[in-house]
User: Which sequence fits this backbone?
């Protein structure tokens, strides 16, 4: 089921590869949403606010690890595109060892610092206990999260986006069942939802591992593959760390938004949490396009197909822009009515506040598409530091707006923090893309 993305129509290749990732991301968001829905409905608004307030921390911790594993497998995709299977297997073995070491370190670090982090974030006292219980379970399950993300990234590097989808669907259904059991039967509260997420993610990771052993002989590692080679490991860290820091920089900005939001009270936190869940589901198309572009660009860079890279960026931009218009219209017209999925108390107030955020985000979906497409595509080409600088711009945009909003006690200002970041980062990424591609266009003209 591997796909060579160096041949065929870029539109068809990108769209065909993106759709399974998009559907998989939707299911992943749905089982994250299931936590919020079940907690909000059966535990209460404070528990929903607790889960929502932990979303930014999850993004910081798990996003760092996701960026790291994605960076490791950029090299895997480049070797696959170049047809060098031996080097590809060595990159996989090295990625497995590095990911295991970093996972253990991140688990220890995050769990030991969590109380202080929640204090820094101005977590409201009425939701602190539920928030702490939820995020500590998530941190304890970091290894399960990394197992799936690494193996799914490896499969996608070889052009296989369908199998990770199948196992995500399995995890989504399992998560809903476990949510209901842990919360309704065992009365575990928000922590029960976290256990459901960790267990489900672990099952999907093990399923990916079994599939690789049974169906992907190209990934059957030999003893000599399971070692760290100085040059290869340094190369992987050179790409992986900036990608991980990119996620972390974005997450730090989001934490600043959450800290500003926490000063406005539990009702604003719950409303923002519900609206964010809705926006995250709709915007998974951009995440999927970004994942596709990382693999597409990595394979074509390995094959030296610079002309095909340009066609791919154009194709992805058209696809992303069309979807942005359709998704933005949906958010404007119907987004607020989805809030009833999350709450059964104070519905009117929460619906009104959630609608403000949804309209702010929906109006800026095209810049969000640009950020995902060009950031991941440039990373796939092997440029890790440049996209990280765009992440710094995103942090500045999001942080400045959040700080001003917190000072003025403005909810709508807080809602505009992320859209402002998307505009600033998107403009910078476009400039970077044209800068990178300029010498290759000139070489083709001279040829």
Assistant:
């Amino acid at each position: 089921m591997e796909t060579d993305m160096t041949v065929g129509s870029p539109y068809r290749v990108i769209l065909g590869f993106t759709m399974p990732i998009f559907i998989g991301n939707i299911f992943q968001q749905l089982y994250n949403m299931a936590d919020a829905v079940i907690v909000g409905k059966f535990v209460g608004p404070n528990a929903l606010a607790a889960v929502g307030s932990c979303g930014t921390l999850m993004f910081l911790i798990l996003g760092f690890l996701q960026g790291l594993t994605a960076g490791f497998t950029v090299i895997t995709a480049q070797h696959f595109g170049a047809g060098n299977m031996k080097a590809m297997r060595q990159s996989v073995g090295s990625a497995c060892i590095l990911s295991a070491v970093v996972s253990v370190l991140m688990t220890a670090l995050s769990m030991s610092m969590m109380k202080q982090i929640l204090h820094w974030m101005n977590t409201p006292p009425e939701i602190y206990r539920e928030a702490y219980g939820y995020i500590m379970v998530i941190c304890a399950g970091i290894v399960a999260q990394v197992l799936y993300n690494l193996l799914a990234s490896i499969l996608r590097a070889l052009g296989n986006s369908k199998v990770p989808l199948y196992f995500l669907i399995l995890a989504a259904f399992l998560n809903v069942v476990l949510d209901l059991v842990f919360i309704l039967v065992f009365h575990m509260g928000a922590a029960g939802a976290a256990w459901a997420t960790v267990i489900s993610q672990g099952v999907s990771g093990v399923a990916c591992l079994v599939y690789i052993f049974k169906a992907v002989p190209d990934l059957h590692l030999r003893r000599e593959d399971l070692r760290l080679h100085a040059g290869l490991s340094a190369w992987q860290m050179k790409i992986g760390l900036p990608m991980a820091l990119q996620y972390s920089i974005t997450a730090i900005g989001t934490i600043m938004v959450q800290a500003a939001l926490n000063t406005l009270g539990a009702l604003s936190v719950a409303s923002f949490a519900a609206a964010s869940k809705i926006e995250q589901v709709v915007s998974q198309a951009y995440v999927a396009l970004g994942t596709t572009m990382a693999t597409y660009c990595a394979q074509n860079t390995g094959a030296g197909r610079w002309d095909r890279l340009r066609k791919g960026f154009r194709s992805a931009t058209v696809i992303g822009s069309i979807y942005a218009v359709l998704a933005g219209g949906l958010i404007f017209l119907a987004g607020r009515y989805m809030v009833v999925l999350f709450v059964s108390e104070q519905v009117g107030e929460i619906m009104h506040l959630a609608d403000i955020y949804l309209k702010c985000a929906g109006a800026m979906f095209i810049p969000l598409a640009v950020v995902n497409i060009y950031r991941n595509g440039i990373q796939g080409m092997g440029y890790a530091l440049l996209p990280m600088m765009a992440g710094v711009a995103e942090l500045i945009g999001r942080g400045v707006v959040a700080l001003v909003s917190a000072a003025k006690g403005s909810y709508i200002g807080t809602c505009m923090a992320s859209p402002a970041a998307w505009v600033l980062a998107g403009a910078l990424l476009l400039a970077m893309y044209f800068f990178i591609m300029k010498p290759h266009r000139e070489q083709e003209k001279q040829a």
About this structure: The first helix runs from residue 10 to 42. The chain has a mean pLDDT of 85. The chain has one domain: 10-438. The CA atoms of residues 65 and 244 lie 6 Å apart.
